[in-house]
Amino acid sequence: MTEATFPHRHLLGIEGLGAQELNTILDLSERFLEIADRPIKKVPTLRGKTVINLFLEPSTRTRTSFELAAKRLSADAVNMSGSASSTVKGETLIDTAQNIDAMAPDVIVIRHAQAGAAMQIAKHVRAGVVNAGDGAHEHPTQALLDCSTIRAHKGKIAGNTVCIIGDIANSRVARSNIFALQTLGAKVRVAGPRTLLPLGIEAMGVEAFDRLEPALEGADVVMMLRIQTERQAIGRFPNTREYSRYFGLNRARLALAKPDAIVMHPGPMNRGVEISSELADGDRSVILEQVSRGVAVRMAVLYLMAGGAEAERP
Amino acid sequence: MSGPGKIELRERSTLLDRVGIARALKRMASEIAEKAGPDPYLVGIRTGGAFLANRLAEIMKNDATGDARMHPSVGVVDITLYRDDVFRGMLKPEIGPTELEDSIEGRTVVLVDDVLYTGRTVRAAMDVLVDYGRPRAISLAVLIDRGCRELPIAPDIVGLSNPVDRNHTVSVLLAEEGGEDRVVLLERVTGEMA
Amino acid sequence: MTVSAANNKAFAMETLFLRGGRVLDPASGFDGQADVVISDGVIARIAPGAEAPAGARIVDCKGLWVTPGFIDLHVHLREPGQEYKEDIESGTRSAAAGGFTAVCAMPNTKPANDSRAVTELMVRRAAEVGVVRVYPIGAISLGLEGKTLSEMGELQEAGCVAVSDDGLPVMDIELMRRALEYARGFGLTVIQHCEDLTLSRGGAMHEGAVSTRAGIRAQPAAAESAMVARDLELVALTGARYHVAHISSAESIRLVREAKARGLPVTTEVTPHHLTLTDAACACYDTNTKMNPPLRPESDLEACRVGLADGTIDCIATDHAPHSPVEKDVEFEQAAFGVTGLETAIPLTLALVREGRMTPLTWVSRLTDAPARVLNLPGGKLSAGAVADVTIVDPEERWEVRASEMLSRSKNSPFVGQTMVGRAVMTIVGGRIAFAGERFGSNV
């Protein structure tokens, strides 16, 4: 009987986690996938445990995914939302976190609009903290579910060429995936208009491309990121029409990748902008599978962080 | 790993050898056919019980006397997520798959395990089954009943009844896991001073 | 020009005999053993083997450096309006503990120092509770809004020694041109916080490999150098005296070096933290590493060190920016910019002397006669007849930076908990001991 090792109180990011730890979570998630196929989609493992979802940045799907993950483990899940953080009039983030922690949750899942927020509250609470996205910094469970999906289709992560395309500069999904994929031995390429490729991205060990075509050559996995149309005040690209013309994934571009390359997207998709409808619904798309694996991965994470009673083995 | 105060398991005797195990399983298979027929669903409790369930199913399929030849359904349950004693924190036992391909709804389920001890494993296994459907009946077949029950659970079919106290452990070693089929009795001893 | 002197009754004017120290006076080039006699608020005599006057308090300066009083051109005293972070009393005490005998107070107070009323308030408060000299810097634009010029003439009359909108740049290029021209008419230097706001967009740290990895919204170094380049064109056009506040990037320094070579009346300053910490320090989201301009990569630090050594950067100025936990104990991108610096300036900058990049005399110059020259301030000289503003430094003292021991009301320093080498042990302002460290009986 081997033991699952995850010697951390929090899951704040992928950076700093080793391959073994990542594989532990991925292996565990396979087990939790089955639960969604059962007639009763529940196991009693986290019975009596409390998970509080503190979502200070709007998100329905990630929050629902975490909520389902907790509930399928029989934990009590509570959702708290609010606008991102400390304005002069509002309660500070640390005060909010400490107030919540005073209610003795076992796990606090936090999503926040600013980088470093998860790390910050982790210093001030007794509960375990799961980062559900902190600004442009990290979104560890997303990277884990992405790796889980890739593994399911490619057998393993190592040796694959993964192409992440889109608004890399503002994407926590990109960052967490870069950390995870590299740790697990994949080659990572990022592509997008220059205005969306952050300075110094190569220092993270990836190849950067300002056109899609060379990046897609021979790729095993194509991961499309959502274009944030909300942030276009600064105008990093002229409009979505031009973006989709030069940086959208369509059949012709996908043909440059390997014939069995899979198409991924963290959602929600802008159909016709970063990805054509045809591909989003096509047989190479694993987008919906990502969502199912998302619940399983989050169950695995919650299980590792909160599962079980206090140790009293002799 | 000895040393002052450390608990060690020392082999004391063999309760059943390969031949003994084969004999017991044969007898158990015919009892199952008799008591749980005509269409039993053998569900092994991972890991030891799962191997035994497969063996029992094979025996039942290959039984020479035409009447008793059966094709029982076989499944396996993993109880890790249902245990009441997994401790919180970093180390967790590995979770295996629960595979119940055929529906258990309305079936006569025979839970199979290698050793029956406190009864907690069987209780957890029944909780798993209940989450999968409503069997018509559940009965319990174990290779060894070593007593020291903590819950009101009793086996319907037993290979060998051999009550031992809490200072002893009964371990079923199976060829599927490497090595020879053997049921051994171990004693817990406190390590000697160096 | 009115200045505020430390005439607080708690600090008596004494006759002091500073015996056996190493006297460093950059203005005269003197570096050697000498004794210093101070009486009636002036330097009476400097000579080796002098005799202590009767009744003088003897200060044993063996192993210590005796220098002109340090001058900090860039300090935020937060009074009026934000006294919960710092006020003139606590700020000047902090300055004295850091070895400074004079500080220039930036105008981004509340209300801003854009009128004689505020300047006069600051001058009065400094006279009442200030422990070191306080020279107010007036605003360039009304309300620091960057739209219309402030009453520079009146500000100067009330006591301002320069003008700046620090905290903010003057974005409008035409207003900056008029500000330079107008200030020139009064002989005032314009100090610019160089940051093109449309490029920086509130970026919380330096834009580069570290910010990319950490996912923190960042500003490129070009936000600073683009404005330096722009302003230098205006300096060439107007001939006005122009000082770049807290320079931080290699490119900005290169531009200043070039401008000086062309003979333009440009000066600049650097903070101790920009000589010490790189942007890597921000990776842990500690808001005490968040300041503006932000910490930069090693190559920019190196340019700062080289620039300070060769004189392209005229002087050291701390940009002491106290903030309370309300402003700092928040998300990194949300936190206010700025760190304190008066009390750690000496050990951090002395590192350059220890590394052999500059002589002790040059180091002292960057803190004394050079800043005095930049803004035409009195002081910066240690010679007979000069006002007795004197700093005594122990270049070897090892000490730990402890928040509880800091004299500033705010504790937002990235150096808390670190061990430093070098410290002010006595600060004398106009013949009064404004600060005495432990070795001299501590008047803190």
Main attributes of the structure:
heterotrimer; B: 194 residues; alpha/beta; Rossmann fold; 5-stranded parallel sheet; 3-stranded antiparallel sheet; 3 helices; 24% helix; 32% strand; C: 444 residues; Urease, subunit C, domain 1; TIM Barrel; 2 domains; 8-stranded mixed sheet; 13 helices; 28% helix; 22% strand; disordered N terminus
Biggest β-sheet description of chain B: 5 strands, parallel
CATH architecture of the domain at 18-86 and 98-162 in chain B: 3-Layer(aba) Sandwich
Percent in strands of chain A: 15-25%
Intertermini distance of chain A: 18 Å
Number of strands of chain A: 10
CA-atom Rg of chain B in angstroms: 18 Å
CATH topology of the domain at 18-86 and 98-162 in chain B: Rossmann fold
The major sheet of chain A is characterized as: 5 strands, parallel
Number of helices of chain A: 11
Biggest sheet of chain A, strands in spatial order? 8-7-6-9-10
Question: Could you describe the 3D structure shown?
Answer:
By secondary structure, chain A is α/β, with parallel strands linked by helices. Chain A has 2 domains: 19-138 and 292-306, Aspartate/ornithine carbamoyltransferase (Rossmann fold), CATH 3.40.50.1370; 140-287, Rossmann fold, CATH 3.40.50. In chain A, 35% of the residues lie in helices and 15% in strands. Chain A has a 5-stranded parallel beta sheet with strand order 8-7-6-9-10. A 4-stranded parallel beta sheet of chain A has the order 3-2-4-5. In chain A, helix 4 links the parallel strand 4 (107-112) and strand 5. The two termini of chain A are 18 Å apart. The model of chain A is unreliable at 309-314 (pLDDT under 50). Chain B has 194 residues and is of the alpha/beta class. Chain B has a domain at 18-86 and 98-162: Rossmann fold, CATH 3.40.50.2020. A 5-stranded parallel beta sheet of chain B has the order 3-2-5-6-7. In chain B, strand 5, helix 3 and strand 6 (137-145) form a beta-alpha-beta unit. The radius of gyration of chain B is 18 Å and the shape is globular. With 444 residues, chain C is of the alpha/beta class. Chain C has 2 domains: 16-66 and 386-440, Urease, subunit C, domain 1 (Roll); 70-374, Alpha-Beta Barrel (TIM Barrel). Chain C has helices at residues 88-97, 116-129, 152-158, 173-185, 197-200, 209-214, 222-238, 250-261, 298-310, 325-328, 345-354, 360-367, 369-374; strands at residues 16-25, 30-39, 42-47, 57-60, 65-68, 70-75, 100-105, 133-136, 163-164, 190-192, 205-206, 218-219, 242-244, 266-270, 315-316, 390-400, 419-429, 432-436. The longest helix of chain C is centred in the middle third of the chain and has 17 residues, at 222-238. Strand 1 (3-5) of chain A pairs antiparallel with strand 4 (91-93) of chain B, so a sheet runs across the interface.
